Amino acid sequence: MHKKIFPLSILLGFSLKLxxxxxxxxxxxxxxxxxxxxxxxxxxxxxxxxxxPQENLKFxxxxxxxxxLLHNKYEKLFDWKLDETLxxxxxxxxxxxxxxxxxxxxxxxxxxxxxxxxxxxxxCSHSWLDTLIYHETAHNYQFNIKANSVSRFLHxxxxxxxxxxxxxxxVPNSTENSFMSEGNAVLNESxxxxxxxxxxxxxxxxxxxxxxxxxxxxxxVYNKKLAFPYGExxxxxxxxxxxxxxxxxGLKNTNLYFKYHSEDFLWSQFTNASMKKAVGVDFETSLxxxxxxxxxxxxxxxxxxxxxxxxxxxxNSLGSSNDAIYFLTNEDGxxxxxxxxxNKQTLDIKRIKSSWVAGAVIRRDGAYFTQAxxxxxxxxxxxxxFDNQGFIKPNxxxxxxxxxxxxxREVYFDVPSSFSQPQLYISNKFYAQVNSSVLVDKDxxxxxxxxxxxxxxxxxxxxxxFSYKGFYxxxxxxxxxxxxxxxxxxxxxxxLYRYKDGNISRASxxxxxxxxxxxxxxxxxxxxxxxxxxxxxxNSLENIKEIPFETKLFFEDxxxxxxxxxxxxxxxxxxxxxxxxxxxxxxxxxxxxAGISADNNFIGSLNLNFADPLQQNSLSLYLKRDESRxxxxxxxxxxxxxxxxxxxxxxxxxxxxxxxxxxxxGLMAAVDLPLYRAGYYYVNIGASxx
Length: 690
Fold this sequence. Notes:
- The chain is an alpha+beta fold.
- Helices cover 19% and strands 34% of the residues.
- It contains twelve helices and 37 strands.
- The radius of gyration is 27 Å and the shape is globular.
């Protein structure tokens, strides 16, 4: 979900004799938004500048209220006050991405996208927007910390630039591994009363199985490997590791790891020493103890058994109809996705390999589509239903389709209004605000969960059926007698439950169930997970006297947990201050590099970098001297605000090193005009002059 962006120039090696100082004059390449995006406005309060289009004004107010409560807490927990304005972007519905990111480049900022309704069951939280803010702001504190006077001095002079002479770093924690940074952010997304991934039985089960397999060790978690569960290990196993630290040593001590890590201004890689300062135990020892604790839970952990009808390296939600169950798999993780169709009557299996966009499968008019997000034009990334060539189905733009009723009306989440919580519509009429995906049965009844604080309530249409304590719950299916099946927490993981005649019972003994669909009233298709893959098996339904397990995390008894519910009065926001991508460019930092060439001459470069928070414009002023001993000074400007993107650069020669055949100056211009972008096709016209 929440990646951090660092400039490529961080990843440098150097040699005093052989290193070359020819660094590109601009490190800012990609805009955070599509070209020709909507007009943005800004509001700067308490050193936080919110950027938002008019359509997101309500959500900007929510973000402002949340930020107002958050920073006093994070300042105490990280023992640090941000040394730059924090820019928080609430991006328009032209950019329907279920993600967000945090970075110190070009300045201290976070970008939050609107597409969370697509992942409503994954994040196990009440509000997508609040989850983004809690998670990404934790990153802003992690990487903004400079607990040494050298880095603070360098930042005062060079900003967020990269200084290589060799010299210390002005952003020391930029070298931190994602296992600690993402894991800590998952911890910090989860203690506000908004839920979070630490409340998910699916992810607890994943952690137990990874521990049992011996995969939670420094060599595995600190080295990214192309192996299951891929990038999730940083977020999920990293998150549960940070939860282990916080429960054992305290939330503040756990967060203080980043302060101690940033004390190493020259080479911030001493993880063991930083962890020992923070909690009294080094990283390797604490990770081993954490792994052993979760491995011990595997003794009573039950895995779904049966003949595997399919396996996959990645998971996509199951779809079903009266006659079939269908879902996407990818057996080896690199081939084309495969659509698996299970006939409920005959149990025959059909497999179709094609270029599906990853997502839950919906069948409509005999054709199969996936709920996904992709470019539908050069200026729009939309969610909707996509076919096997990556093209969006007409009339599904900006809709997360859940099902179709018998009279052909769409049941869907309206993306532009669902920045915080999914807004459920039938046709063009608002129906309810919900907190889970929606199941529609054969009689057009709607089933979904609604969250109220820690109480999760299942609804049939607009009638509440039952409630339990927790944030995790997914409606699975309804049988011929009206019994409702749903996924919720077991004591050790995630399992299948049944609601019938006012009573709840457990319908499977397995703890590793991700999703489930009924084949008939006695048999179920389970999507389960082990330490190497997702797998799909047919099981008989069970009847075990057990209700959903309440996952209660230690911080629920802490005062800071209850503070989430405190109402505070904040200033109201408006749209009276337009955001101007050119005039809102800020100084980011200076890249400085110096070295000795192969013939023992001084070489080096200096870049002064400027950019706006949405990265629609960037400017770099540069001076450089390479191995030719010719010195250049110039400027480079990039603009991606509009459909037509362009770059302009000009330089002058300030020292010809006595050579006569060297020009005095130079110009460069380049333009790129995208003409078409949809499916797997991109057509553009580009031209350049030098």
